Amino acid sequence: MRNTIMSVTSAGALLVLVVAVAAVSGLTLGPTQKEECATGKYPPPKTAEYQVPKYVVNLDLPAADRWTHIVKERAKSIVNLLTQFKDFLRALDLQVAEMFINYIDHNFGNLTNTLPEPFADEIKGISKATGIPLGEVLMYNIFYEMFSMCTSIVAEDPAGKLYHARNLDFGLLMGWDIKNHTWVITESLRPMIMNIEFQMKGKVVYKAVTYAGFIGAITGMIPDVLTLSVNTRFSLTGGKIGIIEWLLGDHSSQWVSFLTRDVLTYSTSYQQAKEKLSQVELIAPAYYILGGNYSGQGCVITRSREKALDIWELNPGKGVWYRLQTNYDHWKAPLFVDDRRTPGMRCMNQTTQQNVGFAGLFNVLSTKPVLNKLTTYTALMQVNAGKLETYKQHCDDPCWPW
Ligand SMILES: *[C@@H]1O[C@H](CO)[C@@H](O)[C@H](O)[C@H]1NC(C)=O
Ligand SMILES: *[C@@H]1O[C@H](CO)[C@@H](O)[C@H](O)[C@H]1NC(C)=O
Ligand SMILES: *[C@@H]1O[C@H](CO)[C@@H](O)[C@H](O)[C@H]1NC(C)=O
Ligand SMILES: *[C@@H]1O[C@H](CO)[C@@H](O)[C@H](O)[C@H]1NC(C)=O
Q1: Are residues 386 and 277 in the same domain?
Q2: Which atom in ligand 3 lies closest to the alpha carbon of residue 271?
Q3: Residue identifier of the C-alpha nearest atom 5 of ligand 2
Q4: Which atom of ligand 3 is nearest to the CA of 225?
Q5: Which domain holds residue 336?
Q6: In Gene Ontology terms, what is one molecular function of this protein (predicted)?
Q7: Catalytic (active-site) positions
Q8: Residues facing residue 152 across a β-bridge
Q9: 129, 216, 130: which is closest to 170 by C-alpha?
Q10: What is the band of 21 on the pLDDT scale with cuts at 50, 70, 90?
């Protein structure tokens, strides 16, 4: 009962904020408005506007040195992002913001020691290499995973080959630029997108997509074995309480995007990854979207902090050739002002299984409002080919703000 009231309240609060933002931005809301499914978007132009760089992270190096070559080169954009975030806080309330920033810069960094290795040392290494206060690097790395709006799809083609694709949308409610019709944080993140190859002894162990300075994995794959993405699951009784417990000294739960790094590092099969992602206690609720390397191996794991509430699987024998997940439990209706599920599924249905592939999936993920002002990138993965392609995304007006 209490849970129900709290989630109704949180959905209500989100709705009010969302409508307020829409009003400010001068956009007309029309949940029934239908966009044509995009076609011919793949491959996107070979320009810096769409392409992302590739870096190697050598797992044989001490954790503190692994990210140095990347973050030194990208320090300016990380500082810029953090500055935008601080400006956003100051605009809300100058005095509270200064107190908060002061706490982050001078006290929060100590909590890095409560993270498991190698994550603690990696974060310390990034702070040292860039000169950015440890507390700010830590905040960037943990704050991030709780507020991403996303769409993930796992699908198989008629031959039983598995594909996995996702949009990563981030920056909701953090500073709407009235002049440019953009989200300030989203714009700052886009130039920081990169593909990473994690190597051991010169060989690729796994691949992931990230933002410079962010060490967790939200999108990744182990070539020949599995593909994985994470979508945020909102729940008032989940994330925030988990973080408060952690701040108060209970460090028994795992961070959502560190568990995925663990899974990518150590898993040897789809089945093993599925069990781990279903069972490990988490700091925040989440959706894990997982694909294997064999027909039928694909699922959406809906996680509470404690356990898997539901595992929603492909079933090619029964005509279920894809699963599409946004930020709402699949057995419930999405928030009506944020329905990316219906247009996404409509376009998947229209694409048909015959056209499952990078082009088909990229078109679906380039259709508004699946593509919106928060979308930073689209990633495409094919496990047997070991292929991971990432493209920066842009949504030209008229476009939904989320
Ligand atoms: C951080 O840790 C150091 C070393 O343990 C300690 O001296 C310092 O007081 C701590 N700072 C805070 C704010 O807890
Ligand atoms: C808004 O757009 C203008 C012109 O394209 C650009 O110079 C400016 O930096 C943008 N503002 C932000 C906050 O991105
Ligand atoms: C699929 O993964 C399993 C390990 O989970 C591996 O034994 C098998 O060779 C892989 N198959 C392909 C086609 O890569
Ligand atoms: C897409 O197809 C599935 C399976 O036939 C169906 O359940 C679903 O309602 C369709 N969704 C849309 C939005 O067309």
Answers
A1: yes
A2: 5
A3: 180
A4: 2
A5: 4-53+147-392
A6: N-acylsphingosine amidohydrolase activity
A7: 150
A8: 166, 325
A9: 216
A10: low
